[in-house]
Design brief:
By secondary structure, this protein is an alpha/beta fold. The protein has 2 domains: 4-147 and 309-372, D-Maltodextrin-Binding Protein, domain 2 (3-Layer(aba) Sandwich), CATH 3.40.190; 150-307 and 381-424, D-Maltodextrin-Binding Protein, domain 2, CATH 3.40.190.10. The protein has helices spanning 9-12, 48-60, 73-83, 99-104, 112-118, 127-130, 156-162, 178-188, 205-211, 231-245, 261-267, 280-287, 322-333, 337-344, 352-355, 371-377, 388-398, 400-403, 409-424, and strands at 35-40, 63-68, 91-94, 143-155, 195-198, 271-277, 293-296, 308-314, 348-349. Strands 1, 2, 3, 4, 5, 6, 7, 8 and 9 form a 9-stranded mixed sheet that branches. α2 (48-60) links the parallel β1 (35-40) and β2 (63-68).
Length: 425
């Protein structure tokens, strides 16, 4: 994984600072096919997109106009706006949680014919990436360039000083169960000085510890039930909260409200283990100074899976240059295009042959970098619901009482079930 110092913490999690967009927002409704307009929430400057777009322009003779739009929830609003317009960009970044919502409107182009004609083979890709955007009717509403699987980053020096056995360096639960993780977190903690673990501020935990407790995650397979309220799922959520509430081995929720606070605590040696997406390798390489660190798998229980953010792009149905958009999208997810992303390290390319380039760690930390690819292979492919955005906006704030140790997950989630299921149905 080379070129990692180019990426900051914010870029690593998909956010970005303000930047000047290339190409502007206005363009003719018709297209002669020579230009592909792309909208993304990530600034072009300093990202791998700059290099890979230049390579595409040289190889194809086409020109790319890049639109840097708003970030965070403002981007969701922007996405709805452009998809409802008569002249949207040819290719747009889509939050992977909301693909089903946009697909249901009929405003995303079905990519099945493009994929079939391209000869792309599912066996060449990580399953969770290749199948990420497939809808229940078989349509493909977008395409994922790759995944940021979650792993555990840990302070190896702290483990050795306390005499806690080190986690495994491969994807196994041998010696790395929930009980092992909790025991390590408690042993590493020193009241008033440091905490053994930090999982609570990574929203992906609500998928990981529910599925690994034998549940299905947020939604049932048919997308009609709020599965997070099921007993196994709610207990998995509670297990994470209890690292704080029952054992004092994790920072309190109030301590983690500042953006990036958990990562800062780990880099400062005040947290022994932290769950983050794999791209935080970049941030910790730049910011950890005083100890040795490495990565470990997510701890196992009934099963041992992880969950990753995916980098999804889609072609609007009203796009003027669908063919050019697909040619660019295919370039980004095959070689040599995918190789640029592998070298940059912001995410693991979905193409396995490109992803293998990310494991060339050399003498840099982490030593167990190859585990990131094993994490990608063990990523869960979640169920999707159309009204995911509306449901998240209701249930996540309500769960603050659980994070703040003022209520239990089963009682809060059980009480939310009727309202959330009305939303998603």
């Amino acid at each position: 994984m080379t070129g990692l110092s180019r990426r900051s913490l914010i870029a690593g999690i998909g956010g970005t600072a303000a930047a000047v967009a290339l190409g502007g927002c206005a363009r003719p409704a018709a297209s002669d096919g020579s230009t592909v307009t792309v909208m993304n929430w990530e600034a072009l400057d300093g990202s791998a997109y700059s290099d890979v777009f230049a390579a595409f322009e040289k190889a194809s003779g086409k020109r790319i106009k890049y639109q840097f739009a708003a970030s965070g929830s403002d981007y969701w609003v922007k996405t709805r706006t452009v998809l409802g317009a008569s002249n949207p960009p040819d290719l747009i970044r889509i939050d992977d949680d909301f693909v089903a919502s946009y697909a249901r409107t009929g405003r995303l182009h079905d990519l099945r014919d493009f994929i079939a004609a391209s000869g792309l083979r599912e066996s060449d890709y990580f399953p969770a990436v290749f199948g990420n955007t497939r809808q229940p009717d078989g349509s493909v509403a977008g395409w994922s360039l790759g995944i940021q699987p979650r792993v555990i980053f840990y302070n190896k020096t702290m483990f050795e000083q306390v005499g806690v056995p080190l986690p495994p360096t491969t994807w196994t639960a041998d010696g790395w169960t929930w009980d092992d993780f909790r025991s390590a977190a408690r042993a590493l903690s020193i009241p008033g000085k440091r905490w053994g673990a930090c999982v609570l501020d990574d929203s992906g935990f609500e998928m990981i510890y529910t599925v690994n407790n034998g549940g299905t995650g947020r939604w049932s397979a048919d997308g009609r039930r709020f599965a997070l309220a099921d007993p196994a799922d709610a207990a998995g959520f509670q297990w994470v909260a209890d690292l704080t509430c029952a054992y004092g081995a994790q920072p309190r929720w109030s301590e983690l409200q500042q953006s990036g606070r958990g990562a800062e605590l780990f880099a400062a040696g005040q947290v022994g283990m932290i769950q983050r997406v794999s791209s935080f390798v970049n941030y910790f390489r730049e910011n950890v100074q005083d100890f040795e660190w490495d990565i470990a798998p997510i701890p196992g229980n009934v099963t041992q899976r992880t969950y990753g953010n995916q980098i999804v792009f889609a072609i609007p149905e009203a796009a003027a240059n669908k063919q050019g958009a697909w040619e660019l999208l295919e370039f980004l997810t095959t070689m040599p295009g995918a190789g640029f992303f592998a070298d940059d390290g912001a995410f693991v390319p979905g193409l396995r042959s490109a992803a293998e380039r990310t494991t060339a760690s050399g003498t840099e930390m982490p030593r167990s970098l190859g585990l990131v690819l094993q994490a990608a292979d063990n990523a869960v492919l979640p169920s999707r619901v159309v009204a995911a955005q509306q449901a998240l906006e209701v249930y996540r704030p309500a769960l603050d009482d659980v994070r703040n140790c003022q209520a239990t997950a089963p009682e809060v989630l059980g009480g939310l079930r009727p309202q959330i299921e009305e939303i998603i149905r």
